[in-house]
Design a protein that fits this description.
By secondary structure, this protein is α+β, with helices and mostly antiparallel strands. It has 6 helices and 7 strands.
Length: 200
Amino acid sequence: MPIRRGAVNVARFQLQGEVPRDVKRWLQRGLTRGAFAPIDVKSEDERTAGFVELERSDAAEFSPATLFYGQQALFAWRVDRLKVPAGTLRTALSQWAQAFEQKNGRAPGRRERAEQKEGLKKLLRAKQAPVTRVFEVSLDLKARDLFVWATSRTVVDEVQAAVESHLELRLFARVPAAFMPPEAIDALTPTPELFVEGAR
């Protein structure tokens, strides 16, 4: 769990909707529909995301033995990015332009430069390994709570959308403000004493 690595940032959601009797089969099928698929290096995609097993981020079989721990279902959300760094592409293009000028006695034209840039981008992309990040997700089937262990709002929103779509449920955020009466929220607003003189 992320807490073992010192990370305790978590988003909590409440499940709304009917959960089928055969929970294991339902969850396995839903996660498989939203399973992670690697980036195709021939495509223009720079990012891909999907569900994977918690202990094996390269697997998406979701067998009950690896998915369930008592009343908890534990899995993960994997995000891969494959982007050629701008500095690497710029350096490679500069080296090609110098070689072109030495060979032809002139600087490459705009069209030649653009074509070479695309070719270099494809070449460098094929050699580059994607950057992988894995975010843990836990589902408490008894309390009907879903936890996403991530700080990124984008990742939390993605997981929420994927769970709602593939498991056919609604998720409602459970944040402290949702359980507090309005007068308690008003009491949390900064008072004039908290403002530093001259900071306004």
